[in-house]
UniProtKB/TrEMBL annotation:
Predominant localisation class: secreted
Protein name (record): Chitosanase
Top-level taxon of the source organism: Bacteria
Catalytic reaction(s) noted: Endohydrolysis of beta-(1->4)-linkages between D-glucosamine residues in a partly acetylated chitosan
Active site per database record: 51 (proton donor), 69 (nucleophile)
Length: 267
């Protein structure tokens, strides 16, 4: 989890061991981006398996708890945090598209606690109302909208600009989810700059494997700067495994284990 501008989706399983076994090589067909609907679904499941021990990422709309990381509440499909601003942005957007919703009354409190781990004005009532709101398709769509606006779309756009295929775009997405895209040394932008100091992107004429290894090295360094991320297995035994297999397109079937649990995506 990055400094207070970071948007976290981690739910407290960071100390466990992640091991992944990947089946299936790269396809000879033309590569598609991570924003292809089927690839995006794979990305959502991969992230959810690590962060929620489940492939059912849509079940996380209702998720909310304080995981004790100093960022207040962590909630929803991407770990919107009351202390980092993205939960406030989400509820503001939800209220824009559905005025008078059940969470709108918490906007003053969310503005006050932004930047802190305080629950003042929130608490158990907010937790219950969040779970209620999660049943509303408009709130679910709002979560999807903010996930894409803040995390997914910027990651995919930068990945495509750098000449990366779906795996590289996923590496960017996973990094921006965990570290945010602010200006601190462990943010996504800073991670990418560290990688660029070591290797060229494919768009610059570099080798895709070499560049992605440099990016994952930089990502690992960023994770090690904070105790909560000292377990770097999601890089070491997940994304590195995909890269070693040269599955640049994240083609199924995929089989892997996360924190001792087995998962698979067959198609």
């Amino acid at each position: 989890m990055h400094a207070l501008n970071r948007r976290t989706a981690i739910t407290g399983l960071l100390a466990a061991t992640l091991s992944v076994t990947l089946l299936g090589g790269t396809s000879q067909a033309a590569a598609v981006g991570l924003d292809d609907p089927a690839k995006k679904e794979i990305a959502m499941k991969l992230v959810s398996s690590a962060e929620n021990s489940s492939l059912d990422w849509k079940a996380q709309y209702k998720y909310i708890e304080d995981i004790g990381d100093g960022r207040g509440y962590t909630a929803g499909i991407i770990g919107f945090c009351s202390g980092t601003g993205d939960m406030l942005d989400l509820v503001e957007y939800y209220t824009q598209v559905k005025p008078g919703n059940i969470l709108a009354k918490y906007l003053p409190a969310l503005r006050k606690v932004d930047g802190t781990d305080s629950h003042t004005g929130l608490g158990s009532a907010f937790e219950r109302d969040w779970a209620t709101a999660a049943k509303d398709s408009t709130f679910q769509q709002a979560q999807n909208h903010e996930r894409d606006r803040v995390y997914f779309n910027p990651a995919v756009s930068q990945g495509k600009a750098d000449g990366l295929r779906a795996l590289g775009q996923f590496a960017y997405y996973d990094a921006i989810v965990m570290h945010g895209n602010g200006g601190d040394p462990t943010s996504f932008g800073s991670i990418r700059k560290r990688a660029l100091a070591k290797a060229k992107t494919p768009a610059q004429g570099g080798d895709e494997t070499t560049y992605l290894n440099a990016f994952l090295d930089a990502r690992k360094w960023a994770m090690q700067q904070e105790e909560a991320h000292s377990d770097t297995s999601r890089v070491d035994t997940a994304q590195r495994v995909f890269l070693k297999a040269k599955n640049f397109d994240l083609n199924p079937p995929l089989k892997w284990k996360v924190y001792g649990d087995s998962f698979s995506i067959n198609s």
